Amino acid sequence: MQANSTGGKAISMGWHPESGFIDRNWDGYNEGMALYFLALGSRSHPAKEGAFEAWTAPFPKYWRGEGANRYLSFAPHFAHQYGAVWVDYRGIYDATTRAAGFDYFENSRRATYAQRNYAIANPMGWDSYSKDIWGLSACDGPGDLVINFKGKPTQFYGYAAYGPKGMPDGEDHGTLAPTAAVASIPFAPEICIPAAWALRNFQGGRLYGKYGFFDSFNPSFRDTHVSLRSGSVDGRLGWVDNDYLSDNQGPILGMIANYKTGIVWNATRKVPNLVRGLKRSGFTGGWLNGA
Fold first, then answer.
1. Local structure of 196: helix, strand or coil
2. Per-residue pLDDT tens for 88-130?
3. Please, which residues have CB within 8 angstroms of residue 195's CB and are 6 or more apart in sequence?
């Protein structure tokens, strides 16, 4: 891992053989946090000192909520899950979380409640959002189409990073992803397990296939006369995908396993590069200190 071609400490999001590192870096609160731990923990090509601080520098614009509901936000829910599949954030703190008074696991718990609360409020007026049917994340959609919804021409999209309005990168077009709720079970089982059952039984089991949950669904999309990118549409029940995407199926499996046995977390606690990277990022406490 190296910094980008401009000489900064943040890690570039990509590299092209023709032009080198791209200008956009991994920084701010998103799914890239674990990348920094592995980069900083590398023995052969470690990231520079200060890399994690470059990552967290934009954090002030990501805070939402107040008091017990204050948390670092990112609209598509996968950002709260991807690193947490592999890293046990419980009881370990960096400079940001020490100042906030809660760890990143608690941050993801609060973000999970915020997703559910958004669905209950349903400010966009989409169909079927409720206390048990919720969850916006990156997933398939019915397609880049404008169709009628409640008497108005309404834009829908195909694959996109969906999330609640008002959060960083928030785009809500009525498409829900089961992974948002189901892969959050370790954070808030009291709301995520009921959501998992509700999603499993939704519309008579229409969201569930041979390999588990289909990637996504949109009960508000009911136009049966358009050409779909994927899935199928019912004029009364709406659209359901027919794909299983690995980036959403994987967190479901990993996080259920962590909730039941901690198997992934227990294994990665023993990875020297990860432990070294966490400590170089300023994390202390909990299992990092042998507790």
1. helix
2. 999 999 999 999 999 999 999 999 999 999 999 999 999 999 9
3. 116, 132, 133, 134, 135, 181, 182
